[in-house]
Amino acid sequence: MTKPRTTGPKPWISLSGIGVFAVLLLAVAPLVLTDHWLNNLGKYCCWAIAAVGIGLAWGRGGMLVMGQGVFFALGAYSMAMHLTLETAGDRIPGFMVLYDPLAPLPMFWEPFRSAGFTLLAIVLLPVVMAGILGYALFKRRVKGAYFAILTQALAVALATLISSTIRETGGDTGLSDFKYFFGFVLNDPANKVMVFLIAAGLLIVCLLAVWQLYRSRFGELLVATRDAEERVRFLGYDPANVKLVAFVVSALMASIAGAMFVPIVGIITPAEIGAAASILMIAGVAFGGRASLFGPALGAMAVGWGQSSLGSTWPEGWTYILGLLFIVVILFLPNGLSSLPSRFPGRTRPKPDVPPTPAIAAAELEEVRA
Amino acid sequence: MTDASLVVTDLRVEFSGFVAVGGVSFDAHPGEVRFLIGPNGAGKTTCIDAITGLAKGTGSARLGEKELLGKQVHKIVRLGVGRTFQTASVFDELTVLQNLDIAAGRHRSALSLLRTRRGVDPSIEQALEETGLAGELTTPAGILSHGQKQWLEIAMLLVQDAKVLLLDEPVAGMSQDERTATGELLRRIAAKRIVLVVEHDMDFMRRYATRVTVLHQGKVLSQGTVADVQADPKVQEVYLGTADAIAVGTPNRKED
Amino acid sequence: MDALIAPLLNGSAQGALLLLAALGLSLTFGQMGVINMAHGEFLMIGAFAAYLVQQVITASNLSIPVALPVAFVVAGLFGLLLEVTIIQWMYRRPLDTLLVTVGVGLILQQAALQIFPSQGVPVEKPGWLDGQLNILGYEWPLRQLFTILLASVCVAALSAWLKYTSFGRRIRATVQNRDLAETSGISTRTIDRLTFFTGSGLAGVAGVAASLIGGTNSQMGAQYIIPAFLVVAAGGIGQLKGTIIAAWAVGVALSYFAYWTTGSLAQVLAFILVIVFLQLRPQGLFTVRTRSLA
Ligand SMILES: Nc1ncnc2c1ncn2[C@@H]1O[C@H](COP(=O)(O)OP(=O)(O)OP(=O)(O)O)[C@@H](O)[C@H]1O
Ligand SMILES: [Mg+2]
Question: What Pfam families does the database record attribute to this sequence (chain C) (predicted)?
Fold first, then answer.
């Protein structure tokens, strides 16, 4: 098995990479891009934020999170409810009136009137939910494919639930038509740039966070846990806790991504959070390189671009490309595009591919079966 | 370092009806290199599995005052019980230093985990000296030689500050020189720790064992010094036709 | 009383359909460790095969019995193709097979969408499935009984095949110790292919059954894959009896939940049920004890 590469370039090179990326996104992009493209780029940034989290959980932690849509949804719907209420003012949101003109606002909507509560919810909901779910699963040593499918099942379940509660969540049509963003008029081009800058800034913050995590002792421990969980246990750690931290952080990033997605795109529907959307988030990470620092973010932006340009002009073709992308990348380039440079002779760092030991291979198989 | 002894009494391990270990008792004290030998399938590894919490066993295994059986794997480790595996298992992707650093880390606070490592812990340097790996600090563990991997595992136990080292076939697949080096290493570290070695290599056993327990079909067959055990007719019978094998020393039987 | 019995019958049929979908997964995942996310699309292929058979044999009374073996072979061949082209290179990377087959599933779905009308195709139910059978005072729709019967036949055939034929024995030998099997002269390559063919073929049979109950369209496979996998997980890997009980339990639970609440809430509840269950028994209902971590 080809293990995802983990020892990246020197820390300061990565750091200046983040710096360059920050300048491009925060300074250059708003100057050179049209409003339309800047908005699109903002959307890709959101997917990239979620992807950075997936890179942490999957690339470094070995947890294939196939249901990040769930946490994306927690952030997105929290934000959307707040913006909907802000737009509606004292009245009941329009879509609710459509179904039942007299019914009151559902209880769980009420606290989202408060901006503070909304921001808190965006942070705390995914942390609590991923905390409970992860604790339950990791302590019982649910891992590998089981973990992947269970998280995906959760995304399906949540999307179904939202689709079916039309009056409470807008159902399949979702929530849209937001006019204000914490007091700012969303239609105003200047405010649009501001929203973009927030999303791009958050992406940079997330990159910095994982940059530090990857070079910290925790990062090493996480990789060790990914490669030989049982061995870590025999060093006196509880691998469940190590994985839990990575999982919770990745959930938080997905939630932040969802929250910023709402003011940028202007609509959130179950289609953006269900199984297909969750898989799309994985696609970008696999494409860019799951274990690398920039791979997930750049891969997600590339896939995001494909999704929103090809996906609308040539949907059939895009689906085929996406399918092929999974097959080709996973089959031939398990570490994504980020592993390409080291594949060219002359640029290789002295690090031969280590053949898997039988114990590890067996443990891996065990992982899917156990 | 510690005066506590490892005392195993009437240890039993069953796998859905099959008795792998059926009432084994032995003890090991600091200062001795204790050997556990026996034919394939005798239950040696299973004993270690039970002591370290990997397999469920009944009876008792105490380290000093503390009962080990029934505790979770990582909690047993935190009581100071470390082990190696029949197949060398180090983190191939990480360097020797990173491997050791992780092993040393269980005393660190959660917050300090978030910081980057600066410099090398003194305990790690000491373990590197001890095991002769000092030159390999930045080598990825995956490309170490087989023998070096096993030393790295022992070094990890040292930095982990284990009071009890349970080593499952530590010299399997090693050259004669490497065996000697390992034997000397075990002797040195046993001065302050409890070292329990599972081995098939009789020659190695004869050279370094202070006391030996022979297991056969999950039961203790014989116990005592190397000479006692070798003289025991029951032992000779079990190693049937290999009675001389014990005397002569068998070449290493397998490398799995 | 009636109100409580009806979901039971309905749920049993639903469970049987789940079982059909899970059977092949249980074989390929349990025996080979491969997570085939395109299994749902193989099911879809079976359903479309039934439709195509009906274009040739227009009498639906006859066409469905013909469609069953045809769907088995067609879906099986697709599975074989997948094994030979992709899966065989990935046996050491089980988690990655999951993602690769996600890609395969996407492509198959899109292909189906372009080949067949996007709203789906009608599969005619044979006349002999229309009636009801009165058992113990309750009316059992024949259609549901047929699903249950089909599932039973498939389970019986599969377990007999695994137990009594030399191929079956070799499959089990390969599962238990691949290296040993290989050195004792078993061609594990052939075994892998045959297992994959059979597992995928069973998805095809499930597809025919599904086409008689719900719509036949490009999305149908995606509905089944997750529940089928949950059933395999809850049943315990490689455990036929576990899969049977789990499928039935999930089917019945879904049906009661749907009866008490709504269809979509039922899905959510069933999912929570499985998670809670896996909390209690992470290995599923029945387990084969192996020695993990050498
Ligand atoms: N998890 C398990 N399930 C069933 N049987 C097991 C399990 N673990 C060990 N056994 C059986 O218990 C017996 C003892 O095994 P063990 O590995 O302890 O022997 P050993 O003395 O270490 O042998 P070796 O020298 O070959 O390493 C063997 O017959 C083995 O097959
Ligand atoms: Mg052993």
Answer: BPD_transp_2
